Each structure stands twice: as C-alpha cells, then as structure tokens.
Amino acid sequence: MTFDCSVAVIAGGLSFEREVSLRSGQRVADALRERGYRVGELDADHRLVETLDSGEFDVAFLALHGRFGEDGTVASILELLGIPYTGSSFDASRLAFDKLAAKSVLRRAGLAVPFAIPLTEGALRELGVGALLDRAMDELGLPLVVKPNRGGSALGIRLVERPDQLPAALMAAFGYDDTVLLEQRVVGTELALAVVDGLAPLPAVEIRPKEGWYDFSARYTHGAAEFRVPANLDPAAADHCLKAAHAAHLALGCRDISRVDAILDPEGVCRILEVNTGPGLTSTSLVPMAADAAGLTFADLAAHLTDRATARRPR
Amino acid sequence: MLAAARWGCQKALSFRLMRADDPFRDRYARGTRSMTASEIRALFAVASRPEVVSLAGGMPFTAALPFDVVGDVLGEVVADEGPAALQYAGGQGDPRLREVLTHLMRHEGIRGSGGDVVVTEGSQQALDLISRMFCDPGDVIVAEGPSYVGALSAFSQYQVEVCHVPLDDDGLDPDALAAALERLERDGRRVKLLYTVPNFHNPAGVTLAASRRERVLELARRHEVLVLEDNPYGMLGFESDPPDALRALDPENVVYLGSLSKVFCPGLRIGWALVPPALRERLILVKEAADLCSSSFTQAVAYRWFSNYPWKETLKGLRDLYRERRDVMLEALTEDVPDGVTWTRPAGGFYVWVRLPDHLDARAMLAKAITARVAYVPGGAFYADGQGGSCLRLSYCFPPPDRIREGVRRLAGVIDEELDLVRALGGLAAGDPDHDQGRPAGWGGVQ
Question: Which residue from A219, A247, A253, B402 has the fewest beta carbons nearer than 10 Å?
Fold first, then answer.
C-alpha cells in the first residue's frame, strides 16, 4: 500500500451522467481518504489538464460515466500526461462504449449478444430508411428495445411494445446519439456481473425492478428495484454467467474493472447486453453491491483499484 | 494486501435480498413516495455548466443589485439591532416588515392590515402551509394549465389531485373554469383551492385580464372555493401595471401570496401571505409548527430596504433590464425559430411559453438541446396530469442579451433538426402518451 500516494479522483464532466458520476466520485474520495490516501477531487472540465499537469498527482481514479469520460476521452489525456489511472485504456473504453462495435467483437469471441439493427440519423434523414422500420420490427419482433449506441444509465432507452411507440422511442434515443440500435428484447433473469481484475469472481447481482423496467429512475432511486446477491441461479448457471462476463471483459481488452450487463435466457444462455468500463460507484450501484456481498467493503474496492493503477506507474 | 482468499470465497456467502441498500424504503410517507430520481434532473446537472446557455431556471438577476447599498443595510442591522436581529422572532413575522408589506401591496390596489400578514420563507413556504391547512388526500386543487411547478410539488405532498383549467392570452379561461367547477361538484369532489398566478404567469407569461377577474372570483365564491392568488411578478410589468389584485376585489375569499424574491432578492427567503382575518390565527399556528419563525435578520434587512432606501429605483432598474431581455428573446424567436412554433408575448415577469408543433416532444428533445448547449424546461413539468408534452418554458431573466440570442439560435437549430427527423420518420407522431411526463416531485429546484 502506498499511503504517500496522491490520488486525483476525476468525476463529473459534461456527460449526461454528470450527477451520477459526481456521486460516484464523492464516494470514492471519501473511501480513499478513510484509507489514508491524499485525495483531490477534480471535475472533468476545461481546467482538468492544467490541474493534472501540475505534478500534484501520482495516480488518477476515474469515476466518470458516459460521454467524455467512460468513452476513453480522459484516459487518452492521462496517457499523454503519463499519469497512471484506474480502469480501461482509451481503446478498450472506446470500443466498449460503442455498443454496436462491442457487439461485433463479443460475437466473434463466441459470446451470445442480442440481435440488433443499427440506425443512423443520417440514414433516416437522407436515405429514407424510415420506410423500412416496419421490416425492422418484423425482423426483431415486439417488444423490442431502442437504445442510443453510446451512453449509459439507461438514458434514452425505451421499450417498444406497439408499432406506434417506435417513432417516439427513436426520437428519444436520437437525443443522446446520432446512431441508435433497435435491439431484440431478451427475457430472462437480468444480471449485473462485476469483473474486477486481481480478485476472485464477485457474485452475480440479480435485478428485479419493482415496476416492470429498470429505467433511469429505478437505477438511481433507493428502493425502486430489488437486487438479489448472489443471484438466484444454480451453481452451473452462475458459473456460466461469470465466465461469460470475464470472457467479455477480456475480449474487449478491458482492465481493472467492468460491469457486464446480461440476461440469462430461459435456455440457459447468458446474453450480454453491454460492458461498462466506468461502472457506477454510487450507494445504489451494482459493482459495490457485488463486492459487499463478497465481504469486500467499498473502501477495499477503491483501494484495490487505486493500487493496481499505482503499480503501473513508470519507475 | 487484499488477499482474495480472505473474502472472495463464494462458498462463505449467505443469500441476501438487497433492497438497493435503502433500509427505510417501506416506511416513507405516501406524500413523498413519488419523489424519484429523474432523467430530467440528470440532464439539468449538465445544464448548470457554464458552457450551456440556460434558458431554464427562473433566477432573478441579483448581480444588478447595488451591493454597496445592500452592504450598508446589512451593517446597519447588525449595528443598530444586532441582538434582536439574531434572536428568534414572532411566528407571524416582524411587525415593522408586515406594515411595509402592506404599503407594497397598495400598488396593486390592496388595502390590507399588517395584522393579517404572515411572513413566510419565500412564498413557496406559504404554498406549503396553505395546502397543509386545507388539503386532505384526495381533495382537488383547481389550477391553471400550465401551472407553476413549485406549487405542483408543494400540492403533491398532500396527495391532492390537481385539475388544470386552460388559459389563453388573457389568462385563466372563466368559461372553462365554470365548466370544471360544475363537473367536479357533480362528481362529488371537494375542491379546496383555486390556485392562480394572475400576473405575468409562470410559466405562460400571460396576465389575467381585468374583465375576467370579477367572474373568476364570483365562480370561486359560488362554489365555495378559496382563491390562492400567487403574485411574485406583479411589480415587474414592462408596459404598465397589471390590473388590481384579486385580493383587492374580494378580501374575504382570497389568500394573497407575495414575495420579495423578484422585486429584491430570493436569498433573503421572504414571502408573505395576506389572509382573510378568519384564517390568520390558524396560519400562524401552522407556520410556528413548521419552523417557529422566519429569519429575524433577513426580515430586518428587508424592512430597512423597503422603508429607508430607494428601492423603487432599484426595481425600475430591474424592470428595464428584464424588459430588454424579453425584447431580445422575442426578437430572436421571431428571427430564428421555424414556422409552426408559437409563443406567448409576456408584458412582464420572466417567462415565454413556447408551443412546438404537436408531434414534437419537448422532453425527448432536451438531451439534444443540452448537447447543443442550450437548456429549457419541458412543458410537462407544469402539469400534474401529463399534458404539456409539446410545450416548453424559456426564461429570459438571468442570461445577458447576447447569451439569450445565442441560446435561442441554438434552440432553433435543435427544433429544425427534430422537425427533419420527424419528417424522415414519415410524419409519425412522436409525442408518446404512454411515457411518464414527469411527476411534479421530480422537478425540485426549478423556480
């Protein structure tokens, strides 16, 4: 343990997940201070580079979610500055953040991913793709899920149960990204699978939204969803899911920590929805919950990630 | 040092059903259960960044106050009456301030007594206290549609049903009000309050025409509904003063709420209720139960400001400043915004209410707007029942004129893009009636 180590906890930024990120960052900073680290809390704004370049910090803890954070933007800055940081590299972050690109990589790695049809705003505006939407619905079946290709926390995600709901769902998703995906709706046990390098696998978290759908509000309102840790799975299924998550983490080149969102379908196949390289670390977040269920405190987790990054410091 | 073997062993785990680690979740009062994190709040967290032109919040432009003079007032209070100003005060409020407030209200035709004034923490607290005094779960409050979001939040705590009555350029529509009151009476509903912002309405920007005021009051009397007149903007008329207050016309059946937030500053948290004498004692008890008393210090400051200082000049300065900003916003809207979009033309106050073509959803559009670095409040915030999806509120009170111009230009670009997208989708309606338009409790902090 390097108690003389000075950690920049980077959070906030201009992402739509700014508020969630600030909550994650605050929690990380408190935990690291409790462990004796020197901690500075930095907003990912126009002063960030200047502050980091001051030489004050030995290592950066990334508590960023969403665009300009989880997408590798800040990782690339830290690479340039030569400051080691927690979590995935620029390449892996960017790849995981792009749901469609990540899907291709995961599929090639032999993992099951729900079928999705990409749709760009350009194709819709310029090429008249709108006329094909009925065909897309036929192909995917209803209900289907509409998602922005990049972005997290379920922002802009809508469940489409009837054809007349599709245009509004597309408009909402295009609010967050110029590429959206229409994704086959997979039913089954909804799981959050935490992968933390250097630790034994953490138990799967099962998500049971109280009202139908694990949307933004359910994610961040205490008590709006129930979580079961470990998930109510037989040992073989649990093992299958954890292995799939780990394989996904490796396939995308992720490092230190990721949260793999997946659904275990009735056939026993773990279908991977997405891999988050900057998972939430708030008091309602799932990775800390999984760690807690394994007897690991939040401060243990934060220190573990910080120490892994510190070990990468050039000597 | 974190030996995986120490804690990572799954066999050692016992099953746990976790409840998003909120041990209290089954114990919350009904009135606060609908208060959830919302997508909109997440977006507003970005909207407060300096890169974004925020046409969302209704913050008065306090930077225009003469701070040297304000500093003198603060110093005087400490020097002349420090011990009392830092002590508890009476629950009804500083009698000197209450007297001064009656002078302010004379500008609106009100002849009231300081003895019938109760000072509150902003008029927002008065909204809370009056609802608490009158409303049981299931009662009905009739309000304009759209209506002030903060009032809707206050009402929702008491589990009332808000029945919206439409307004037009002349404010609340009396015919629609008559029909609503009759229907509610027929249905056996208990209507407790008629909530109205008659002057320079928030969010609609319109003013209740003088010719409608008697009729509205007569309807309220006939149906035995107490009128709650919320008038924070009445002294911010740009062309002329608004008609006499409802309270001036019917002292017995109107609770009048005033506020110093817009004519001086919101940081003092001073509002007041002028109530019919029959309500006075009960309101004081409710106020004392809530917080004992409002701040003695800020009441003393306000008293001095409005009795010994040239507050009228300051107010005139604010009015001129807001008028210029209103003009800039209306001009920018006329120049930039695509056909099919309409908006109100406020003669005072802070807000312009914009109506998009019906198939656009202002709430779904907000993410795109913030990405384009402009923010507004989607219209759904101002309804308790899911209406207002294709409307939005713009505020011109806070950003300087060039930022207003830039913000409207950005917004116009976003609306253009949305219209393009809708056309590309074959003109299919984008407004989604199923999607929750935002429970009022999710809008905390929007003025």
Answer: B402
